[in-house]
Amino acid sequence: LDAGALNGEHTMNFEWLGEYGRMMALGVMTTLQLLLIAGTLGFALAVLVGFGRLSRQPFIAWLSLSFTNLIRGTPLLVQIYVMYYGLGSLFVSFPLLRDSWLWPYLREGFWYVALALTLSVAGYVGEVIKGGLRGVPKGELEAARALGMPRLLMIRRIWLPRAIFILLPTLAGESVMLLKSTALASTVAVMDALGVANLIRNQTFLTLVDRLAGKRTDAWQIHYAAQQAQARGEEVFILSVGDPDFATPASISERAVSALLAGDTHYSDVSGRPALRQALAAMHGEQTGQMVSEEQVIVVAGAQNGLFAVALCLCQPGDEVLVPEPMYLTYEASIRASGATLVPVAVDVERGFHLRPGALAAAITPRT
């Protein structure tokens, strides 16, 4: 989903499929492999845990209870880290393992995640199995014993199948939870579906495109078309950006060259040079009558940089910012970057493009 959804524009962007489609398919396959391995092995182990919880042998019952408490009492992410960084670091110290056929598997994060997920399934589903086994009517088990059915055969034919049938809705829910849990594989560099999605996002920045653009920036296409026409030798007057058609005054160019030759090429104060800020503060006081100090002045790289910084400082996701329309194209992008929504307020052309107080008041909401 595009970041434009923050402003109520729900669109899907599939531009990445051409280049990254195969990679995403492999990521989905990795997720399904984790689901299949952990689901199958984890369920088999969960059956043993479930029967162990009902065992009349104190040690077996205690061991099963301790296992489920440990698994259910610690976050799955911590378990994955213990497996990957703990066992993984331990195995490296054994030369015999590094030289064995097991090493190609032991150095892959996939198998540590699969092990952690398997144990997690065993811990959670084991308790579910225990409840299902207790839910089987005792009369059915007594009937099997009365017929002389061996215990293992009774478990395989009656007790376990009946318990699983009772637990089908719960087991379906646990399967969904397991599928969601596979997303943690990406935290240890396993390229599952989420890991590939994060890679695509970081390489393409697609999730930020709409957030930093907006519909009004489509007008830049007119600007680019005008530049292309101008390059072809056509007579074009470009009015889209504030780029003057006259040269920079010679005095400014000379001062810039002199500063460069004098070695003034290093970082300056983040807020701007003190002398410049003092001059700006004084000029502001003279022009507006509002006296400010240099500490209240910050020099930015252009008006858009200033608007962007102000939006990030003042706006929160869900806020609404009223802006007179027509406006400069990138105002919307500066505001959307903070998660806020731009609300255009039409100006009165007959009044010299001035705002009408009534129109401004009508646009105000609790989110303004």
TrEMBL record:
SUPFAM superfamilies: MetI-like (SSF161098), PLP-dependent transferases (SSF53383). GO terms for cellular component: ATP-binding cassette (ABC) transporter complex. Keywords: Cell inner membrane, Cell membrane, Membrane, Transmembrane, Transmembrane helix, Transport. PROSITE patterns: ABC_TM1 (PS50928). Its main location: membrane. Signal peptide: none annotated. Residues 28-241 form the ABC transmembrane type-1 domain. It is a multi-pass membrane protein. It is found in: Cell membrane. GO terms for molecular function: pyridoxal phosphate binding; transmembrane transporter activity. The chain crosses the membrane at residues 32-55, 76-97, 109-129, 159-179. One of its GO terms (biological process) is amino acid transport. CDD domains: AAT_like, TM_PBP2. PANTHER family: ARGININE ABC TRANSPORTER PERMEASE PROTEIN ARTM, MEMBRANE COMPONENT OF AMINO ACID ABC TRANSPORTER. This is ABC transmembrane type-1 domain-containing protein. It comes from Anopheles coluzzii (African malaria mosquito). The lineage of its organism: Eukaryota, Metazoa, Ecdysozoa, Arthropoda, Hexapoda.
